[in-house]
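Bumping my old thread because nobody answered last time. Still need a sequence for this structure:
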C-alpha cells in the first residue's frame, strides 16, 4: 500500500512539475513579445556564448511576421512612392499585400553590415507581361525621386531572372550592376519565395530560398532605407520581413 501511495504521489508531482513548466514558458514567451525580443535573438545570443564569440549579438532593426492578428504599424513606412503613383499596401488574410506597381520603404536609415529577408513572397495575379518584385536597400526617396539599389526578380516569357540594379533620381543606371542571371530550374512562383540581401560594405549578396545566387559591388550608396516594390503588372503578398545586423 505504501509503495502504491508513493507512486501515486510521484505521478502527481510530475504532473504539477509539468504544469509549472508550461506556466513559466508561457510567461517567458509573453514577456519576450512585450519587450520585442524574439526567440531567434535569444538562440543567437546563447550560441555566441557557447562558441565564445565576442560582440556577436545581432541588432534587429525590424522583425514583422504577419498574421490575421497582426496590427501592422504603417506609420513606420513610406508608401506610394514607386514611379510617383499612390498604389498602396494593406493586410489581408495574414499577409502584407500590394497593388500593382506599389512600393513601401521602412523609414529608418540602416547602415553598416546588415541582412534583409522577405519571406513567403507570392505573385497573386497572372499576366502575359513581365512580372516581378524588387527588394530595395541603401535607398532614399527625395523630391519624388528614388535613389539606391534593388535586387530584382523578373519573370517573363524567356524565363525567370535575377539581377542587381542601381537607381539615381528615379532612373535606372545603365549598365546594370550585374547581368541578368537565370534563376535555378527549380525556381517557380507556384510556391512562396524567400528573398534575401546581405549588405557588407560595397558588396551585396542575393539569396533565393536560402541559396546564394548573385553578388555585386558598388560604393555609391553606403546607407539608406530598405523596402519592397511590386512590378508594373504584379500584385504580391509577403509573409514576413526581417532586417538585422550581420558581421562585416
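Sorry it took so long. Here it is:
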Amino acid at each position: 500500500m505504501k509503495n502504491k501511495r508513493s507512486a501515486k504521489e510521484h505521478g502527481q508531482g510530475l504532473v504539477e512539475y509539468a504544469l509549472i513548466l508550461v506556466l513559466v514558458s508561457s510567461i517567458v514567451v509573453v514577456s519576450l513579445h512585450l519587450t520585442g525580443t524574439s526567440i531567434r535573438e535569444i538562440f543567437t545570443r546563447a550560441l555566441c556564448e557557447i562558441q565564445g564569440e565576442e560582440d556577436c549579438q545581432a541588432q534587429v532593426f525590424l522583425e514583422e511576421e504577419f498574421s490575421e492578428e497582426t496590427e501592422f504599424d504603417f506609420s513606420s513606412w513610406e508608401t506610394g512612392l514607386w514611379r510617383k503613383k499612390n498604389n498602396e499596401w494593406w493586410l489581408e488574410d495574414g499577409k502584407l499585400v500590394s497593388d500593382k506597381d506599389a512600393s513601401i520603404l521602412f523609414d529608418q536609415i540602416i547602415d553598416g553590415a546588415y541582412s534583409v529577408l522577405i519571406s513567403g513572397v507570392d505573385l497573386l495575379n497572372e499576366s502575359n507581361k513581365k512580372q516581378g518584385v524588387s527588394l530595395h536597400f541603401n535607398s532614399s526617396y527625395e523630391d519624388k525621386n528614388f535613389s539606391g539599389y534593388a535586387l530584382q526578380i523578373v519573370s517573363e516569357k524567356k524565363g525567370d531572372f535575377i539581377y542587381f540594379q542601381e537607381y539615381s533620381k528615379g532612373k535606372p543606371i545603365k549598365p546594370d550592376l550585374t547581368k541578368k542571371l537565370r534563376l535555378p530550374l527549380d525556381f517557380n512562383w507556384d510556391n512562396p519565395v524567400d528573398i534575401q540581401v546581405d549588405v557588407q560594405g560595397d558588396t551585396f549578396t542575393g539569396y533565393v530560398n536560402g541559396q546564394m545566387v548573385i553578388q555585386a559591388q558598388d560604393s555609391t550608396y553606403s546607407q539608406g532605407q530598405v523596402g519592397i516594390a511590386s512590378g508594373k503588372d504584379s500584385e504580391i503578398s509577403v509573409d514576413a520581413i526581417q532586417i538585422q545586423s550581420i558581421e562585416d
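The mean pLDDT is 81. Let me know if any region looks off to you.
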